Each structure stands twice: as structure tokens, then as C-alpha cells.
Amino acid sequence: MENLPLVTFALISVLGMAVPGPDVVLAITNGSRYGVRHAFFGMAGVVLSDFVLACMVGLGFGALLVASEFYLSAVRMVGAFYLLVIAVGALRTSTAARYALDPGFPDKVHSARTLILRCFVVAITNPGAWMLFPAILPAFVDTNEPIAMQYAVLAVIIAVSDVFVLMLYATLGSRAAKLLAGPNAVWIDRLYGFALLGLSSVLILQSVGHF
Predict the structure, then answer these.
(1) I want to staple 32 with a disulfide (CB 3.0 to 4.6 A). Which of 18, 97, 132, 173 is the partner?
(2) Is residue 16 a contact partner of residue 166, using CB atoms and an 8 Å limit?
(3) In whole angstroms, how far apart are CA 189 and each of 28, 32, 108, 173?
(4) Helix (H, G, I), strand (E, B), or coil: what is residue 184?
(5) CA–CA separation, 69 vs 193, rounded Å?
(6) Rounded to two decimals, what is the model's pTM?
(7) Cα(131)–Cα(128) distance, rounded to whole angstroms?
(8) CA distances from 170 to 25, 30, 33, 76, 166 (A)
């Protein structure tokens, strides 16, 4: 792989992650609820999904999944219902006003493992990722060179791009929490819940016709 294709790939990765989606919503909310430092645990979950997806594409499973509308819809449905669960939980919460006021509160509610797992599941069941990875990664792989190393390099570029973009969104969420500190902070959870509810509804509607 030459330098220019890698730069192009990095740009595509950044632009792809910058488009609002489940990962972005989670990053904003983690930043607003727990601060940027705790939000990094969620980003670790997204990075883990990047490496899993890149490995799946390298082994050929990504193309097989995309070619099967049934299985792709199944992944979409799993992700949709998981987002629905998170959305309902966010809309039911009544303690959001404490997030910006009590630095120790996040540690009492969510462990690092919880944030990593939640973001990993959301990212790995995102149908957009399953469509994007098989379509983009092979185009930047030279079949005359060692394949595994090239996919590893591409996965690292995606991971770094994701962390960069998600950190910006988490910082945005953290700043919003500080501005809305107090009773109005509950609106962060409400907006977060409605955003995920909308995303899950779209995914469910897209999947219904394929079962």
C-alpha cells in the first residue's frame, strides 16, 4: 500500500464516522454523563468492533453477510432491538441532573466493562459498518502483498480515526452537560433516548420486509 491510498482511506474513515449514527449518539451521551475520560471506555468498545469487522472482511465473511439480505437484516434487527433497550432506559432515567454535579457518580453506575460492552454491541450490530467494511477495505489491499498485515494496518487506521471523531463528540457532550448542569440536564437523556429510539425504529422498518 502506498502513502496516498492510506491517506485517502484515513479520510474516508474519518468522514464515515463523522456522520451521525448510533456510535456518535453513544459518544455524545457518554461524554455528557460520565465525562470524556470515562467515554474512552466506550470508544474502546468501538475500536474492538473495528478489529473484529476487519478480521471478518479479511476472512471473507463480510462479503457473504452483505450478499445475504436475510442475515444482514437479522444483524440489523438485533442492533435495532438493542438500541431500543438503551433508548427506553435513557427515557426512564430520573437522575441525569446529577451527572455534571457529582464526578464520582459515573463510577457507581457504570463500570468500564459495561461501557465497553455496550458500545461494542452497538457498533458490531450496526448494518452500516457491515456494508462499509466489505465495500471499502478490499479496494485498499494489494493482493500481491501479505494480506493479513494490510488488513491490520487498515484496521488500525479505522480505529484511530474512530477515536479521534468520537473524542470530539464526547467533548461536545461533556460541554453540553456543563451548560445544562442542574435540573435541565435531564433533557440530555431525553434527547439521547429519542435519538436512539428513532434510529432503532428506522432499522426495524428496514428489516421487516426481509423476514
Answers:
(1) 173
(2) no
(3) 10, 9, 18, 11
(4) helix
(5) 28
(6) 0.80
(7) 5
(8) 9, 7, 10, 25, 6
Average pLDDT over residues 189-206: 78
Torsion over CA of 197, 193, 121 and 109, rounded to 10 degrees?
-160
pLDDT at residue 210 is higher than 60: no
Q: Which residue has the cell 433508548?
A: 87
Average pLDDT of the residues of the chain = 79
DSSP 8-state secondary structure symbol assigned to residue 201:
H
Residues 153, 150: Cα–Cα separation, whole Å: 5
- DSSP label at 97? G
- What pLDDT digit, counting tens, does each position of 71-87 carry? 767 777 888 888 888 88
Averaged pLDDT, 187-202: 78
H or E element that contains 146: none
C-alpha cell at 8: 485517502
CA distances from 94 to 33, 173, 183 (A): 13, 18, 10
User: What value does the CA radius of gyration of the chain take, rounded to a whole number of Å?
Assistant: 18
Which residues, at least 6 apart from 142, have a Cβ–Cβ distance to it below 8 Å? 1, 150
Write down the residue that cell numbers 433497550 correspond to. 85
